[in-house]
Amino acid sequence: MLCRSFTTLAFYLALILLSACVPTVLAEDVKGIRWPEGQAIPKFSQPAETLDAIELQSLSSDEQITFSSLQGQVNAQRPRILLLDARADEGRDTWAETPTVALGERKIYDRDERFELLRKYIGEFKGYVLYDPKKSSHYRNLAGTIAGIEHLLPVSVRLAGELQNAGLKLEIIHDLTTLPMTTGPEVYKYMHQEVWPRCTKRLLVSADPGRNGDHSHTRDIAAAVGAAVVWLDNRDPDERDLMRKFFAEMAAGDAIVLGWYTTERSGITTASEFGIGTVPADFYVSGSVYGSGDDAIEIPPIPPRDSLDNKAYLTIFISDGDNVQYNQRAMRKGWDRNRRVRGTIPLNWTISPALVDIGPGLMNYYYRTATPMDCFVTGPSGMGYMMPVNTLNEPGAPAGVYTTEPAMMRGYARMTQRYLRRSGLQIITVWDNLTPQHREIFANECDDLEGVTVQNFRDDPSVESSEIDDRLRFERLKIPYCTTPEHLDRDIRGRLARWNQKEPLFLAYQVNVWQELSPRKIKELADQLRQEFGDTICFVRADHYFDLRREADGLPYNLTKLSSTRNRSVPDSTAEIDCLSDGSMATSMEVTSPHTIEFEFQSQVTVDRFRCLCERPQDIVVDVLFCADGDFGQLTKRKDDAPVNQWLDFATDATRFVRFTVRPREPNHSVTLSEIEIFGRE
GxGYxYP putative glycoside hydrolase C-terminal domain: from which residue to which, for each copy (predicted)? Predict the structure, then answer.
């Protein structure tokens, strides 16, 4: 009884100390961070010309906890510290030396010099948060969270002694060794009650602090903005309920999770209940460096497509691009290794739209080196991995609908639209399924969305293809996660054998990137099929696939993307205007005076809707004329001062020519026009 009373007294004394009014460091208070409303992940300023770098392999687990916090808080002012992974798939220095990342010189510190690196910056900190991982490894997360909020450094008991011997003395501001908790749930209950109220609610890091866990990846971002770092097992009902308490205070559409979970589906479905996406980042290193500097994205143009024919159209998605660590590591290795294969067959590469924030130089490398046959699409299920409907029964994640509140789904869809626009991505691969209401929300909120795939794990009959409002196609994959060339070949041949060849056939597949279906294997299979079936089989990009599918179904399709469509500048027919119909917001035309762009279709069509995209819609005037035979004195329809940056439903009679006249709203001003899209049908 005496021992229990003493422990309880110590616990409450610690509560008083830790709850003291210490100023909270908010991201918006840090000069080197840009994190406006609507942006998922904070952006860091331009890196220093010379970065201080050290390999993670030179640091013990607890030193990684300290140095990742050091990195994040120092880099919040200006990126100056780079943590390197000597075992990275792509090579330790590959990204640092990639032109689209454009890092400067690096001063490498070895293990014997690690404290010299710490000494260089220790004057920027007020003190230590002391913890003992032997009591519970979860104190690493608690210490790191408190340190990020109060601009301190988390240090273990052992490391504190080594630092003292090295002459690196700071005051111990918080001594967590006096706390009585010994289990993860106890630590996170305490965190939720006493620390979470001072954390940002826009970002949470889920990171394993255990022996073989994650002690450095994305912890720098958490430390930079005062985000909580937690690790709960969502298979356990009590721990799942505790995790829900964190998520309940985060807003769908304004919050994101970085990291991973004890199991995929138990964690993803828990976050999905609240409309919160997860960016898998448990092996993503130095986000506070790669997420810095210029974030302009070089969106690659979309090549024109051929007209619909009576063929079998196949499109292949390469999985797992929602993982930013895959984008940073294995994808780079595979991308470079297959440079001779890419460009010989259309392939759809899943990639995370979060790279716009956390790795724009990485995204630009893929975009800049892509061929016209490389199409980029989002990994599941938009901006961050979310699973609105789970079709598989797993511990902690029974099959069912998880995103049940329309407001939650709407928030997620709105965030996804913002990142579709910023990244130029137009296709989403959803895991697993979407209810009719989910599909309506995607169609209403995501103007840039051209198509969505849904998963049919174990041939679940509830996963169906559908179309919303004659606009957005949801395509059930024929195989959702194919692992072998034999399986893919067998399924394709079986469907070709049953095809009546009286109408186009559409086949969409996703392959498991971690198994045998490499781009080289896919090309070998495609070559064999084309040799046997000739021109009746056609592999296409995903954006072309969905547009062809719309045309085959008698729905409005993108007339401006047809190779037969002609566009010209009037009266100056030599002006370069292909940039206005290439699918890229990164290419544009500057307009300083009234300028007319004319589109001519191969035959007469009916127009259903159109839109113009520009940077400052309030500064531009767009007038649109429609005619059947090129005589604009005889119009089929017109629209003056058309709305910009939104779709306008605008049905016309038979039309073959469309003219857009654009001008600045105010004289002596200039405006930038990025894209014109016209949807219709023959």
Answer: 310-548
What number of other Cβ atoms are within 10 A of residue 616's Cβ? 14
522 and 574 share one domain:
no
pTM of the prediction? 0.94
Query: For the chain, what's the residue count?
Result: 682
Is the pLDDT at 171 greater than 90, yes or no?
A: yes
- With beta carbons less than 8 A apart as the criterion, state whether 675 and 581 touch: yes
**Same-domain check for residues 355 and 281:** no
Please choose, from the candidates 50, 165, 43, the residue with its C-alpha nearest in 3D space to the C-alpha of residue 103. Answer: 50
What is the domain range of residue 462?
312-555
Cβ neighbours of residue 460 closer than 8 Å, sequence gap 6 or more? 391, 432, 433
By DSSP bridging, strand 479-482 and strand 505-511 are parallel
pLDDT digit string (tens) for 255-281?
A: 999 999 999 999 999 999 999 999 999
Alpha carbons 656 and 573: distance in angstroms, whole number: 18
Which is nearest to 608 in space by CA: 543, 658, 545, 667? 658
* HEC secondary structure over 580-627: HHCCCCCCCEEECCCEEEEEEEEEEEEEEEEEEEECCHHHEEEEEEEE
Q: What is the CATH number of the domain that holds 603?
A: 2.60.120.260
What is the helix (H) or strand (E) element at residue 279, kind and residue range? strand 277-280
